[in-house]
Each structure stands twice: as C-alpha cells, then as structure tokens.
Design brief:
Length: about 220
C-alpha cells in the first residue's frame, strides 16, 4: 500500500512539473504586437521649390516582441521626380510619425501612442540623383502595453532617401523596438533535473520506510 501511494505521488508530481514547464514555454512563445502609423510633414518652412516627398504609413503591421528586440517598419518615404531642369531643397523640414499600437496577442490596446520626430535635409535635383536624408529623434518616453513595455531607438547617422529612378523612390523607415516584462519564467533544465531527483529520492525513502514498517 505504501509503495503504491509513493509511486502515485511521484507520478502526480512529475505531471505537475511538466505542466508548469509547458505553460512557461507557451508564455514565452509569442508576443505579437500589431500596430499602424500616421505621419505629417511640415511644408510651411524650409522647402525651396515644389515638395517632392510624401510618406506612406504602415497599416496592419505586426512584430513579435518575444525576442526582446525587433526591427519594425514605420512606413515608406516616397520621393517624386522633379520637373526637368528644376530641383527642390530641404532645410531642416520637420516630419512626425505617430506610432499607434492596436493589439498585443489579440488583446486590444487603447490610449497608447508615441510620436517620432525628425527632419529632412538635402537636395533632389533629378530623377536619378538626390542628397536628401531623414534624421530621426529617438523618443524619450516608452509605451506601457500592460504585459509589455516597449521603447524605440534608431541607428546612428542619417537615412538617405533614394531618388525616383531607384527602387521607385521608395525608402523604408524603420525603428528598433525593445521590449521588457511580461515573460513568465521557464525552469532551467538543471532545475527540472534537480526537482525530479529530489522527488525520486523522497519516493524511494518512503518505499524503504514502508518495507521496514511491514517487516516490523
């Protein structure tokens, strides 16, 4: 009877440990964030010549935050060709991209957004040549999404915007999203082995004790 009870307890403990480990792995498997962006370019100052730059925002975009850091597209700068013999100069022309989280693992997110700002500088002087660049300011605030907190950063240096005859004038704007929090701890293999060894030892001790009691 004691042997049967000990084996039953051992089996229950192993099953419970397995369920905990599986639940932890499932919690770490994905952290899908969906989002969209909106943008505005200040055309009131700093432009000499007709504006040639527009921005296509990101729509129904998504990234997996489970790794801790991931590149995310914010949308696409579009440079149009200037008229023959003309050019357009940009001198610290401001732009703003609003990042709007939509869902995290299917759960809606409301009331959270951040604005990423920057400036355009350079000259577009033909369909084949442009010195136009976009410089990004790193947002000073992070976003609290409940189970995740995310922050944004950008590579050092300016991003060169290609002319219209290179890739159709399309240049993707990207940011590095770094996330923290929200991950359930997963037992290390060594920890699992230690727990299993301990449970096995206790079961063996109970078995031996039961035999001694029966002999007595």
């Amino acid at each position: 009877m004691s042997m049967t009870t000990g084996l039953t307890r051992l089996r229950s403990a192993v099953i419970a440990l397995g369920l905990v480990a599986c639940a932890g792995n499932s919690a770490q498997a994905t952290a899908i964030l969906t989002y969209q962006t909106a943008t505005a370019i200040d055309l009131s100052t700093g432009i000499t010549g007709p504006n040639l730059v527009s921005f296509t925002p990101a729509s129904a975009a998504g990234v997996d935050l489970a790794s801790g850091s991931v590149n995310a597209g914010l949308g696409t700068f579009v440079v149009a060709p200037p008229a023959a013999g003309s050019s357009t100069t940009y001198d610290n022309v401001k732009f703003a991209i609003t990042f709007l989280p939509q869902t995290l693992n299917g759960d809606p997110i409301s009331g959270q957004s951040t604005v990423i700002t920057g400036v355009l500088n350079g000259v577009v002087d033909s369909a084949y040549h442009s010195t136009l660049t976009a410089s990004f300011d790193t947002p000073s605030t992070s976003l609290d999404l409940g189970s995740q907190t995310i922050s944004f950063s950008f590579p050092k240096g300016d991003k060169l915007l290609v002319p219209s005859q290179s890739n159709g004038g399309l240049t993707t704007a990207e940011t590095l999203i770094t996330s923290s929090g929200g991950e359930s701890p997963v037992p290390e293999p060594s920890t699992i082995a230690l727990v299993l060894t301990t449970i096995g030892g206790l079961a063996l001790r109970q078995r031996v004790s039961g035999r001694r009691n029966a002999a007595a």
